[in-house]
Amino acid sequence: MKLTILSLLLAASALGVTSLSPERQVLITYPSDTPASTISEAKSTIESAGGRVLHEFQLLKGFIVKASTQVLESIHTMSEEFKPAIEDDQTVTTQD
């Protein structure tokens, strides 16, 4: 019985640790010469960490995701040669 309670407490604390890093909805874009494999690796990393790819763009190398700040920081440091631009997703208008 003690082992079961300990296991449940450990599982609950592990879930709590992941929720400490709030999710952000961001736009991630890459330079035009970035290989598809680099972009696929970034999307796989986001999804395996519990994030979601919400939209993929066709005209530029980028996508919108909802992911934790921690996984976004890891995406930023994945590639030395092809650094992504990561910015908060927001509404853009042409008039005030």
Short recap of the structure:
With 96 residues, this protein is an alpha+beta fold. It is built from three helices and four strands.
> How far do the termini sit from each other?
63 Å
Largest sheet: 4 strands, antiparallel
The share of residues in helices is 40-55%
What's the count of strands? 4
Rounded radius of gyration (Å)? 17 Å
- What average pLDDT do the residues reach? 85
Along the chain, the helix and strand elements come as: HEHEEHE
Structural class of the helix and strand makeup? alpha+beta
Query: How much β-strand is present in the residues?
Result: 15-25%
Shape category: globular
Number of helices: 3
Neighbour order of strands in the largest sheet: 2-3-1-4
Give the low-confidence spans.
15-19
Characteristic key phrases:
single chain, 96 residues, alpha+beta, 4 strands, 41% helix, globular
